[in-house]
Design brief:
Length: 498
């Protein structure tokens, strides 16, 4: 078992994992953005990173977890952290957790940007937060936001009362004075990136190696693993267990996670980006704009992942929503691992008087409910207790890596045609009017595995024929956890006329 390259808080049985903060190129410079709710922190974060990484809206308190990104200015890079709106001394569960996440960001930061709304009056929570930030002793900058026209710059001077010397009036939405803010920030950051002790600097990818490779075959520095599922099935708990840190807020309140939260870990020589997505629910079940946007972003990040971990609550069984979410992953060509979470709650200490659940019977029920995911392996975990014993997590990560490798597997045309010679298509159970003869077959792409069938007739493959062929391919070549796609090419008209 390989030891981690950095100090880790992982459980005893998960010593093959080491957590890394972000891209090594930017780990020595970190900027934290903080402020009260709805002052424009996420808008500023998106402006600096040149992305739409954080959800932005008029509703206060949209951002809750720490969101990481990178900003480049005059050839230098820095890591950027977007935090949730801070209200000091608020004892409600979600605000208290947001404050705890923000404190972690402040501890990591080399410089801090406090954002205030320049169109409002100075408020007591701003004073309390400013005093807290000044006590950190770190370089502190006050960004007076929503100064949309130059004539408003003078009104920003009213915020001098906060006692923060470095004040810059900005408009995160329109880009006003963003360059001035970055100039001042990078002036106080370390001048040179230095490798962290025990860290290996990776060489840049040789672009010439990408020539003549199909989608999914490019040299990859990391495998992207998206955790998906309904609200409150334990996605954030699993992320925290895998990373060994409180990376995402966990609470019994459904829909706690809104932004997509990700973290990179190194496991057994593999670099894995674990992505915690918001709980996906039907459009009719979402009322707030932030919830609607979080579902959109969750699906977008799912489509950018290699492997999806479909989490199912063992105490509730498979629901219609689980089947719908699994369908999103299947239709987008993502590899799938079905993760049955909270397994400890149905096997020991049951309060409902029912007998302990049987793993084989439960898996059979899952297979019946999710027939279209019969290729996906099923893993049972208890994310809340996994910190004590990491064997479930080892098994989960081993499976995810194996599935990611299978989706990139390539079968040669020669192997495929030899395979076709031994298949009895009479067993496919297809009506005669829908039957086709496969002249030859080749794998056109990977991730997901895509096969082109050259046939004697220009007809759409019958469902039963396609399922039969898929099952035969899986039996011969594997492709565990990955959907298989088929494309049909009929024999050319000239060939038929001859």
């Amino acid at each position: 078992m390989k030891l981690p390259t950095a100090k880790s808080n992982q459980p005893r049985h998960l010593r093959r994992v080491s957590s890394v903060k972000s891209d090594p190129a930017a780990t020595t410079r970190t900027i934290a953005i903080v402020g009260r709710p709805n002052v424009g922190k996420s808008t500023l974060f998106n402006r600096l990173t040149g992305s739409r990484r954080s959800i932005v809206g008029d509703e206060p308190g949209i951002t809750r977890d720490r969101i990481y990104g990178e900003v480049e200015w005059t050839g230098r890079m820095a890591r950027l952290i977007d935090t949730g709106g801070i209200i000091p001394d608020d004892e409600a569960q979600i605000p208290a957790e947001i404050f705890r996440q923000a404190r972690t960001a402040l501890e990591e930061a080399d410089a801090i940007v406090m954002v205030v709304d320049g169109r409002t009056e100075l408020a007591a929570p701003d004073m309390d937060l400013a005093r807290l930030l000044i006590r950190t002793g770190k370089p502190l900058f006050l960004a007076v936001n929503k100064i949309d026209i130059e004539g408003m710059d003078a009104s920003a001077e009213n915020f001098r009362q906060l006692g923060i010397r470095n004040l810059v009036p900005i408009s995160a939405e329109h880009g006003h004075n963003i360059g001035e803010l970055l100039d001042e920030l990078f002036a106080v950051l370390p001048l040179q990136d230095e490798p962290v002790e025990g860290e290996t600097i990776q060489e840049p990818v040789d672009q010439s190696e990408k020539v003549h490779r199909t989608h999914g075959e490019f040299q990859q520095r990391e495998t992207r693993i998206a955790i998906i599922g309904r609200p409150n099935v334990g996605k954030s708990t699993l992320l925290n267990a895998l990373t060994g840190r409180d990376r995402a807020i966990v609470s019994p309140i459904a829909g706690t996670t809104r932004d997509v939260v990700d973290e990179v870990i190194h496991y057994d020589g593999h670099q894995l980006r674990i992505i915690d997505t918001a709980g996906i629910r039907r459009k009719g079940k979402t009322a707030l704009m932030a919830e609607k946007m979080s579902v959109v972003m969750a699906r977008r990040h799912l489509e950018g992942a290699d492997v999806s971990l479909l989490m199912i609550d063992a105490t509730e069984g498979v629901t219609a929503s689980d089947a719908t979410i699994g369908g999103y992953a299947h239709e987008s060509g993502r590899s799938v691992v079905i993760v049955i979470n909270k397994w400890d709650l149905v096997t020991t200490g049951r309060r409902d008087g029912k007998p302990p659940a049987d793993r084989k019977i439960f898996e059979q029920q899952v297979r019946r409910a999710l027939k279209y995911l019969d290729y996906a392996p099923v893993i049972f975990v208890s994310a809340a207790t996994a910190q004590k014993d990491g064997r479930d997590l080892n098994r989960l990560l081993d499976t995810a890596i194996r599935v990611a490798k299978e989706r990139r597997k390539r079968v040669t045309t020669g192997q495929m045609n030899r395979f076709l010679e031994h298949i009895d298509f009479q067993k496919a159970g297809v009506p005669m009017s829908k039957r086709v003869r496969i002249l030859y077959m080749t794998q056109a792409a990977v991730a997901p595995p895509t096969f082109v069938l050259f046939t004697d007739r220009d007809v759409k493959l019958h469902f039963a024929f396609e399922r039969f062929l898929e099952n035969q391919i899986r039996e011969a070549f594997g492709f565990e956890g990955s959907p298989i796609w088929f494309k049909v090419r009929a024999r050319k008209k000239k060939a038929r006329e001859k």
